[in-house]
C-alpha cells in the first residue's frame, strides 16, 4: 500500500490516505494513479479547471517528501509549472504526478492556485 | 473535512448556436452582468455540466474577443462518446451553462516585438482566434497563421482569416489541408533561414503539439518563445 499525506496551507486538518497504486485509476480525472486521481477518489477537493489534462496550473501541489518517488515530470508539466504562482523546487501538478509504487508521499495544497499568470 | 476552494460560478445563457462545420458547433453564451466576467485572449472556461446524475468538468477555450463584455463564444467538436460535447450539443437556445474561469496561461496580451507565428490544428483554432485578433490589432511585425484541417469545410472562421489577410498588410494566412504539418513548419521556419527571433503560439489535439514544440525549440528558438497548449 502507498501512503499519501495531505497538508493544507489553509489550515484544514491533514489527511492520510492509504491506497493500492496497482488499482488505479480511482476516478476519471487526471492521469491514473496521480495525486489528483487519489485525492478526488478519497473526498479531498483539489481544483482541476482543465479537467486534469495538464492544461492549467490549478492542481499545483508542493511535495514535502517523496518527490523522487513520483513519476518524472514531462516538458508540458514543467512549462505550465513555470507559470504557477508560488512555484517551489518541489512543485508538481497533481494531475500529472503519479504515485507508482508502495511509497510514502507528503504534499501541501497551497492556499491559492490562482491560474492567471 | 477539507474546505473546497471558493470560486465564482457564472451562469450564462446560450444565445446562438452555429454549425461551423460537420460535427462542429459554436455556442455564443450571453454573460450575466454581475458578477462581471473578464478574460485574456487564449484563456478557457471550465464548464460544470450535469451529465447522468453526476457533475463533470470540461474546459473550453474562448474563441471570441475579450472586448465584448456581454458574451463569449466557445466552439467544439462532437466527440464520439464525449460526455461534455454530447451534453452541449443537446442544448437549445436559452439553456443555462454554468462555468468557472477564466483559466489558462496560454495567453497573448500584446504581440511580441518579433514575427509572430500562430499554428492551429483543427479545433485548436479556438484560443488562437482572439490571440490572433489581438496581435493584428497591435501588430508591428509580420503575423502568420498556419491552420491545418482535415478538409476545407473543417477550417473554422476561414472567411474571416482570408478577409484579414486581404486587408492587413502584415498578415498572411496559410491553410494546410494536405501533407505534414511538421514538414511544412520545418521547411518554413527551420530550413529556410537562420532567423530564430520568431515567437510561436501552437494549439491542437494530441502529439502534433509537443512534436512542433520540440522541433522549434531544438532548432534554436528560445524556449519561452514557443508557447503552446496541448489538448
Query: What is the count of structural domains of chain A?
Result: 1
Calculate the terminal CA-CA distance of chain A, rounded to whole Å: 37 Å
Unreliable spans of chain A: none
- DSSP strand tally of chain A: 5
User: What is the end-to-end distance of chain B?
Assistant: 33 Å
CATH architecture of chain A: Roll
The largest sheet of chain A has its strands arranged as 2-1-5-3-4
Low-confidence stretches of chain B: none
Q: What is the CATH T-level topology of chain A?
A: Ubiquitin-like (UB roll)
For this structure, what is the CATH class of chain A? Alpha Beta
Query: How much strand of chain A?
Result: 15-25%
Largest sheet data of chain A: 5 strands, mixed
Biggest interface, chains and residue tallies:
A-B, 30 and 29 residues
List keywords for this structure.
A: 117 residues, alpha+beta, Ubiquitin-like (UB roll), 2 helices, 12% helix, 23% strand, B: 231 residues, alpha/beta, Elongation Factor Tu (Ef-tu), domain 3, Rossmann fold, 11 strands, globular
Description:
The complex is a heterodimer of chains A (117) and B (231). With 117 residues, chain A is an alpha+beta fold. Chain A has one domain (2-109): Ubiquitin-like (UB roll) (Roll), CATH 3.10.20.30. Helices cover 12% and strands 23% of the residues of chain A. Chain A has 2 helices and 5 strands, in the order ββαβαββ. Chain A has helices at 35-41, 75-81; strands at residues 2-8, 15-19, 60-65, 91-93, 104-109. Chain A has a 5-stranded mixed beta sheet with strand order 2-1-5-3-4. In chain A, strand 1 and strand 2 (15-19) form a beta hairpin. The radius of gyration of chain A is 13 Å and the shape is globular. Chain A starts with a strand and ends in an 8-residue tail after the last strand. In chain A, 44% of the residues are buried. The mean pLDDT of chain A is 93. With 231 residues, chain B is of the alpha/beta class. Chain B has 2 domains: 10-103, Translation factors (Elongation Factor Tu (Ef-tu), domain 3, Beta Barrel), CATH 2.40.30; 116-230, Rossmann fold (3-Layer(aba) Sandwich). Chain B is 23% helix and 34% strand. In chain B, strands 4-3-6-1-2-5 form a 6-stranded antiparallel beta sheet, covered by helices on one side. In chain B, helix 4 (181-191) runs parallel beside helix 5. The longest helix of chain B is centred in the middle third of the chain and has 13 residues, at 125-137. Chain B is globular. The relative contact order of chain B is 0.15.
